[in-house]
Design a protein that fits this description.
- The protein is α/β, with parallel strands linked by helices.
- It is 28% helix and 21% strand.
- The protein has 11 helices and 20 strands.
- The chain is elongated and about 80 Å long.
Length: 430
């Protein structure tokens, strides 16, 4: 049984005649009879064709009350906006507030494919949808129902995408202004930075507001993440069409851009101008590498497994091998990550960090010692030949623990599986 039921009246034309109201009453009565007992959210999507009135910042759809319709409507929430994108996004917020995932959509047959195209853009695989044909007819005055359209054109898909993008661009930033942390060690020939969690449009609490990663297991769709990324590109000055994220595997593989892209990798290097590369982070360390002499750069994602596997030095070695970089020229900046105050591992796993250096582990004799992946990363970089003064892991808020600072950063340790993601990024100016 569906947790939420949406009735799509968007675009239907109802006249003021009695039989039209009777048809509407019959339809809504059936919906309420079948779903009111179980569903936690009953919603009507409508527009000005039915008669909408604007009340301050909120839109209310007023269906003319007669023949018991007014009483019946009290069991439904109505959402009315000038565009379908705005209506569905508003409904999505209401569904997310109630933490619902199972949704039934009752929709006119001729609009089903169109509505599915909107839903595919605005919802992820967290949600399950089923569709039912909306039958609205009345004696002697049927409200016309067209036959089902099974396909929409490429132009229609593009129009849907444009409508959604236009709406998302109109939304205000949440939780404050977009804030980027930079390092004075990195030359101005590069654009670079580490994002925080403010200044985006993601509204789900653990993803709010500048989430920069979407997956089938999260409620933030790709279109929202893409809008956050667009705002970042505009603020920093990079081209979002030439933006590449790592494909995390918590290992030490590195993609040298220009070669065949692996299925997964935790490091990227490039010497191409105008291309932005990025490492994800939400407790794991996003690391940025820059060589101003050879004009090349890299990023790496270092969780505890990747740290032990040497992903940081693997990225350095890729830059040396591919671009002729010298160890003494490479700058390495560690972005915000979970600190040793909050990160624990089972003793068997922590033992590997203790073997690296006892200072990487606190309370080693406990079942779950505290581990410092930042210290371990610096140790491995220095042992690999990176100059200590060319490594920045402190200051400029870089050393703040992501778990301890919910106002600034996302954190898997703190927020659980539905966590948001920040990034470290770099590109060579064109």
């Amino acid at each position: 049984m569906a947790e939420a039921v949406l009735v799509d009246f968007f675009g239907l034309k109802f006249n003021s005649q009695k039989n039209s109201h009777q048809a509407l009453l019959k339809t809504l009565n059936a919906v309420r009879y079948h779903h009111a007992a179980k569903a936690k959210f009953l919603c009507i999507i409508c527009c000005s064709n039915i008669s909408c009135e604007r009340d301050g910042a909120h839109n209310h759809c007023e269906l003319e009350a007669s023949n018991g319709l007014s009483t019946l409507l009290r069991g439904f929430e109505t959402v009315s906006n000038p565009s379908m994108a705005a209506s569905l996004y508003t409904i999505k917020q209401k569904i997310d507030e109630k933490n619902l995932t199972s949704i039934k959509v009752i929709v006119p047959m001729h609009r089903k494919t169109l509505l599915k195209a909107f839903i595919d853009q605005l919802f992820t695989d967290v949600y399950s949808f089923e569709f039912e044909d909306l039958q609205v007819t009345s004696r002697g005055d049927p409200l016309k129902q067209s036959t089902e359209i099974n396909m929409i054109t490429a132009q229609e898909v593009e129009a849907i995408q444009n409508e959604i993008q236009t709406y998302l661009r109109s939304l205000p930033a949440l939780r404050g202004e977009l804030t980027i942390i930079t390092s004075p060690l990195i030359s101005d020939i590069f654009l670079h930075g580490f994002t925080t969690r403010t200044g985006g449009i993601s509204y789900i609490p653990t993803l709010s507001s500048f989430n920069l990663f979407s997956s089938s297991k999260r409620r933030d769709p790709k279109v929202v993440v893409q809008e956050n990324l667009r705002r970042l590109g505009n603020a920093v000055g990079f081209n979002v069409e030439k933006f590449y994220r790592i494909k995390t595997d918590h290992a030490n593989d590195v993609w040298i851009m220009g070669r065949k892209e692996p299925e997964s990798y935790d490091g990227i290097t490039t010497n191409q101008r105008g291309v932005t590369i990025a490492a994800l982070g939400a407790d794991c360390i996003p690391i940025v590498f820059a060589d101003p002499v050879r004009k090349s750069c890299g990023v790496a994602h270092a969780g505890w497994r990747g740290t032990l596997l040497g992903v940081a030095m693997a990225t350095v070695n890729a830059m040396i091998t591919e671009y002729g970089c010298n160890l003494e020229d490479i700058i390495v900046v560690l972005g915000p990550s979970v600190g040793p105050c909050c990160f624990t591992l089972p003793r068997e796993s922590a033992k590997e960090f203790h073997n690296l250096d006892p200072e990487c582990v606190r309370l080693f004799d406990s079942p779950n010692p505290y581990v410092d992946i930042r210290k371990a990363t610096r140790i491995l970089l220095e042992r690999g030949g990176i100059l200590p003064q060319n490594i920045q892991d402190l200051n400029q808020d870089l050393d703040l623990c992501t778990s301890c600072h919910p106002d600034k950063f996302f954190s898997h340790v703190r927020d659980g599986l539905n966590f948001g993601t920040q990034i470290g990024f770099i590109s060579i100016r064109e």
